[in-house]
Amino acid sequence: MKHLITTAGLDAAEIGNLLDVADHMAEINSRPVPKVPALRGRTVASVFFEDSTRTRLSFETAAKRLSADTMTFSASTSSLNKGESLRDTIETLSAMGVDAFVVRHKSSGVPEAVTQWTDAVVINAGDGWHQHPTQALLDAFTVTRSFGDGNTMQGRHIAIVGDIKHSRVARSCMDVFVKLGARVTAVAPSTLLPAGGLPGGVAVAHGIDDVVGECDVLYMLRMQRERMDSALVPELGEYSARFGLDPARAARLPAHSLVMHPGPMNRGVEMLVDPSHLPGSRILAQVANGVSVRMAVLFSLLGGAAAGLERGDS
Amino acid sequence: MNPPSAHRETRILDADDIRRAVTRISHEIVERNRDAGALVVIGIQTGGVWIAEQIAANISVIEEGRTVALGTVDVSMYRDDISLRPVVPAAPTSVPCDLTGATVVLVDNVLYTGRTVRAALEALNDHGRPRAVQLAVIVDRGHRELPIRPDYVGKNVPTHMADDVTVGPDGVVISTTMEVSAG
């Protein structure tokens, strides 16, 4: 593994290895001084062509805790005219000496393209509707560690609720969860299911009431308001009535069930209950685990087995 | 085609030898640290962990009532050869308490270049400032690349750099692979 562009190239064993390394990182993060010298002298550049707070800060925190230097490039997509200028940006930063690019872009495929323009490691931090691999890994880490299941999701039922079609988070999560053995149900109106169908093994439900009584994990996606305009959802109120998590539904969740959300949350749309009142809420744990998992990804690509083997000088 | 090679395994310590060496080291630790206050035995992941467990158990028998804290340290994030060779973290660090003021006995199975111990010393630093750190190993096989020496040694074993030294509860084995000239 030279880059992390999509979860598609990862098998269950590789995912398990990354989660094991993340355990180390979680231990480091629990220390009074959460910093190790592992990536001293390496430079990690976050290049974000699309707004993001938590993912960018999470990656930068992860890099700093491994003692890497960080640089940040933020651009509103409107000011850049893709193609040439995007490539120029990457080549310019590469010339300054960057070891890893963390790339987010509103268009699918940009991180893949970036690998052509630099020798550095490229990590996809979300591209269009395509993939958000580190989110899926941190969610797998959160679920398996919450249940004490080791590196497997065998026997767990995970319901992903919301706009599956436009969600890179859902796409990456479904792939990783299924590979780890989970039973996954996509819960969405038919207008918000991907036209190309769902990955093998993923079931469909058309209302949150079908899953809320028996799922181990209720994974709520953000309802992206911009979808309202395109008439995919007739009305927010109707969406909330069928797909929102309200107090009555929360009360029907099994006692051990987890509630997760990749953020940012739309209170009053998909979340009609205060998550801090849900005993099973893992939403803040997801954020904390995000740092550990991104440290594991950075270390594995820049300093771990993969890096050494790529260079062939083990 | 690879040149023909001969593989030879020599068992230099058996299970009883190991047990005796660990017991002797435990007594030496007690003797050296009679008034040392808090004693923390820390095994280097993963080869030193079972030895550290036995040493800690022995000490609490030798000196009844003395509490010995037991911990483990993973050095992979502190190695100086990250990205020169594959570094795969073994098992997470678990340090039971703040090490400030404590006497730490660092335990590993084999002492070789000294680079693992250097990394472990740096790792321990992140958990406080110990009063002293002492080093216990079952086998010292030589070939140091850093100014590091053990305080407690099970056995000094001269080796070639190409040898492989395996230490387990059931003994110590040196594997030597020699190229054999044909004919």
Descriptive overview:
Chain A has eleven helices and nine strands. Chain A folds into two domains: 7-132 and 287-311, Rossmann fold (3-Layer(aba) Sandwich), CATH 3.40.50; 133-285, Aspartate/ornithine carbamoyltransferase (Rossmann fold, 3-Layer(aba) Sandwich), CATH 3.40.50. In chain A, helix 1 packs across helix 10 and helix 5 (133-147) crosses helix 6 (168-179). Chain A has a five-stranded parallel β-sheet with strand order 7-6-5-8-9, with helices on one face. In chain A, strands 2-1-3-4 form a four-stranded parallel β-sheet. The radius of gyration of chain A is 19 Å and the shape is globular. By secondary structure, chain A is an alpha/beta fold. Chain B is an alpha/beta fold and 183 residues long. Chain B has a single domain (16-159), classed as 3-Layer(aba) Sandwich (Rossmann fold). Chain B contains three helices and eight strands. Chain B has helices spanning 15-32, 49-62, 115-125, and strands at residues 5-14, 39-44, 68-73, 103-111, 132-140, 152-156, 164-168, 171-179. Chain B is globular. Chain B starts with a strand and ends with a strand. The mean pLDDT of chain B is 91. The interface between A and B is medium-sized, with 28 and 19 residues.
